[in-house]
What does this fold into?
Amino acid sequence: MPRVFRKAKTRTCNWGERHRRTLERGGAGFSTPIEFTGDDADENLRRAWEVLGPEIMAQWDSPGKRPAAWWVFDSPEPRSENVITVSEAEQLDKLGLLDTDELISLSEMASAENERLHRNSRNAGGEPFRRSWLFWKFIEKRDPNISEAQQLMDLDAFHQYERDIVADPQGAMAGRVGCTRTRFYYLDESEQTLLDLPHKSL
It folds into this structure.
């Protein structure tokens, strides 16, 4: 009697909290559910997003951000590879996908961030003489025709730690003022000259 071969049934999954967290945050490693690894990973991710995605989006409360799976399956374009300098909020803004409530929340965040940095006598994060996308979106309008340092100087928008760096650039290089052993490699030569900082200070 000939052997009957039956088509394997498609595995169905009960998507749980670990699957949800992976859809929201992405990532890989030991915490990744086994269904999201191996040859069927992409298909299982898609299926899980189809099931859990609507609920995740309905409960999403992170202005200017989207779940990791949203960038994969729903976004009109992939997440920028330059994730360090291009925030999710900036990319979403360029895509016209920030709603009114998000813009209000982000504006409030920009004001709070600017106030926090202004109150600190030491660098509380970020690179001196640079501002985040939030600042240029909601606090001031970026002028692409001049350097960022020049515009901040023209606006009299230096924070105290930046004023201290300009007053004692060698101290900043040694880590005595402003921040820890600042290296101004990200400033171009014109900005270093403007601020009277050592050139090519890598």
Q: What stands out?
A: The two ends are 79 Å apart (CA to CA). Confidence is low (pLDDT under 50) at residues 1-11. The longest helix spans residues 100-119. The chain has two domains: 17-75, 101-194.
